[in-house]
UniProtKB/TrEMBL annotation:
<feature type="domain" description="Flagellar basal-body/hook protein C-terminal">
    <location>
        <begin position="381"/>
        <end position="426"/>
    </location>
</feature>
<dbReference type="InterPro" id="IPR011491">
    <property type="entry name" value="FlgE_D2"/>
</dbReference>
<comment type="function">
    <text>A flexible structure which links the flagellar filament to the drive apparatus in the basal body.</text>
</comment>
<dbReference type="InterPro" id="IPR001444">
    <property type="entry name" value="Flag_bb_rod_N"/>
</dbReference>
<feature type="domain" description="Flagellar hook protein FlgE D2">
    <location>
        <begin position="184"/>
        <end position="308"/>
    </location>
</feature>
<dbReference type="Pfam" id="PF07559">
    <property type="entry name" value="FlgE_D2"/>
</dbReference>
<dbReference type="Pfam" id="PF00460">
    <property type="entry name" value="Flg_bb_rod"/>
</dbReference>
<dbReference type="InterPro" id="IPR020013">
    <property type="entry name" value="Flagellar_FlgE/F/G"/>
</dbReference>
<protein>
    <recommendedName>
        <fullName>Flagellar hook protein FlgE</fullName>
    </recommendedName>
</protein>
<dbReference type="Pfam" id="PF22692">
    <property type="entry name" value="LlgE_F_G_D1"/>
</dbReference>
<dbReference type="InterPro" id="IPR037058">
    <property type="entry name" value="Falgellar_hook_FlgE_sf"/>
</dbReference>
<feature type="domain" description="Flagellar hook protein FlgE/F/G-like D1">
    <location>
        <begin position="83"/>
        <end position="125"/>
    </location>
</feature>
<dbReference type="GO" id="GO:0005829">
    <property type="term" value="C:cytosol"/>
</dbReference>
<dbReference type="InterPro" id="IPR010930">
    <property type="entry name" value="Flg_bb/hook_C_dom"/>
</dbReference>
<dbReference type="GO" id="GO:0009424">
    <property type="term" value="C:bacterial-type flagellum hook"/>
</dbReference>
<dbReference type="GO" id="GO:0071978">
    <property type="term" value="P:bacterial-type flagellum-dependent swarming motility"/>
</dbReference>
<keyword id="KW-0975">Bacterial flagellum</keyword>
Length: 427
């Protein structure tokens, strides 16, 4: 019997050495979680064996328990490197319906634009309901796919304008060029207007155009005329006037009951269709609500427009809540999804698949999906990778202990053999 007891000890010590060696071998594996060999003693008991002093029958490995403690984070220069700081797993699909879970966040892009790991498994995200990243469909997950086409352009249709038109200005000494048919921006001289502003606008094809607004004080107190040109041609022609009228009250504020503005202080020009490139006509709406006429110098407080040209993908940003944004060369950004995370009631019950991945089991419980930073889910750090949580010093000590245990059990076999030989030699 001592032989069998010692053999169980050798097997247990060998398993301990294997577990420790596996931990040491993966000390530099991103997202790796160390394991620990746990042991239980063995007793052969029966109904007839009621002795409280019965000798044991050895040892067995009760389980190899995974330790899901947090690993240190190493920062990188790749925004698609993701690390989880806290509880949770990345959700990965292999494209064939198989789901796995991982803490290794070294992601890259395949030929189709899918964000994948080293095993070509696809990272799962919650699909955005809008492009600004404020709402996501958390009921299901989809593959994270980076756009491979250029970002579509958007035509300008609104210009936010906040000016101060000086109240002490006098009407220009030279009249405006004349009827609409003869208007030409090149004929406009500085003595025909009081002030001018300009901005770049875009048509439906993303082609840029220069919009210039000339402000002319009239003889009527508080009244200004605005002449708007796009690429040197008139953008306002209603058949009677080639200008729009702004009227200010005695306090210097825009009078929304007079002139050409509506109750919101907006005025919409006639469609401009002189681009000559097949684009849709540009219909500009100016918001002059915050424009004033005070007794100070002319000032441009705001002049912004909402159009943009076509853009190419220039980069990817991921915030700590897991929202993935695509940045384009035209200055625009688009929410592509929100990294989906999973947690389990019993993470130690997960089945190890290799490739730093785990699979759900009955023991682990069902995967609970969630978002980073909510409930008990950790935060996501972009441009970082989670190191293995293996402590080399601790594992080397375990290695020594396992070796001593192995040697001690081998000594039991040697001692039992000596005793057996002594008995056999009795005559």
């Amino acid at each position: 019997m001592p032989f069998r007891i010692a053999l169980s000890g050798l097997d247990a010590a060998a398993t301990d050495l294997e577990v420790t060696g596996h931990n040491i071998a993966n000390a530099s594996t991103n997202g790796f979680k160390q394991s620990r060999a746990e042991f239980a003693d063995i007793y052969a008991t029966s109904i007839q064996d009621v002795s409280a002093t019965a000798a044991g029958r050895g040892v067995k490995v009760s389980r190899v328990a995974q330790q899901f403690g947090q690993g240190n984070l190493d920062f990188t220069a790749n925004n698609l490197d993701l690390a989880i700081n806290g509880e949770g797993f990345f959700i990965m699909h292999d494209g064939g319906g198989n789901v796995s879970y991982s803490r290794a966040g070294a992601f890259s892009v395949d030929r189709d634009g899918n964000v994948v790991n080293h095993a070509n498994e696809r990272l799962q995200v919650f699909e955005p309901i809008d492009t600004v990243g404020s709402r996501f469909n958390t009921g299901s997950t989809v593959d994270l796919v980076l756009p491979t086409l250029s970002g579509a352009p958007s035509a300008t249709d609104r210009i936010q304008t906040s000016l101060n038109l000086s109240s002490f200005e006098t009407p220009p000494t030279v009249a405006w060029p004349g009827p609409p048919a003869n208007d030409d921006e090149n004929n406009v001289t500085t003595d025909m207007y009081n002030h001018a502003t300009s901005t770049t606008i875009y048509d439906s094809l993303g082609t840029s155009h220069r919009a210039t607004m000339y402000y002319v004080k009239t003889a009527t107190p508080g009244e200004w005329q605005v002449y708007t040109y796009v690429d040197g041609t008139l953008a306002e022609d209603d058949g009677a006037n080639d200008y729009s009228t702004l009227v200010f009250d005695a306090s210097g504020r825009l009078d929304v009951t007079a002139g050409d503005v509506n109750a919101q202080g907006q005025l919409t020009l006639s469609p401009w269709n002189d681009a000559g490139n097949g684009s849709d006509p540009i219909t500009l709406t100016f918001d002059y609500f915050h424009t004033t006429q005070y007794g100070t110098d002319f000032a441009v407080n705001e002049l912004t427009q909402n159009g943009y040209t076509a853009g190419r993908l220039s980069g990817i940003d991921v915030d700590n809540s897991g929202i993935v944004f695509a940045r384009f060369t035209n200055g625009q950004s688009q929410a592509l999804g929100k990294v989906a995370m999973a947690r389990f009631n019993n993470a130690q019950g997960l089945r190890q698949l290799g490739n730093t991945s785990w699979a759900e089991t009955y023991t682990s419980g069902d995967a609970q999906l969630g978002e980073a930073g909510t409930s008990s889910f950790g935060l996501i750090q972009s441009g970082a990778l989670e190191n293995s949580n293996v402590n080399i010093s601790e594992q080397l000590v375990n290695l020594i202990e396992a070796q001593r245990n192995y040697q001690a059990n081998a000594q039991v076999i040697s001692t039992a053999d000596t005793v057996t030989q002594t008995i056999i030699n009795i005559r």
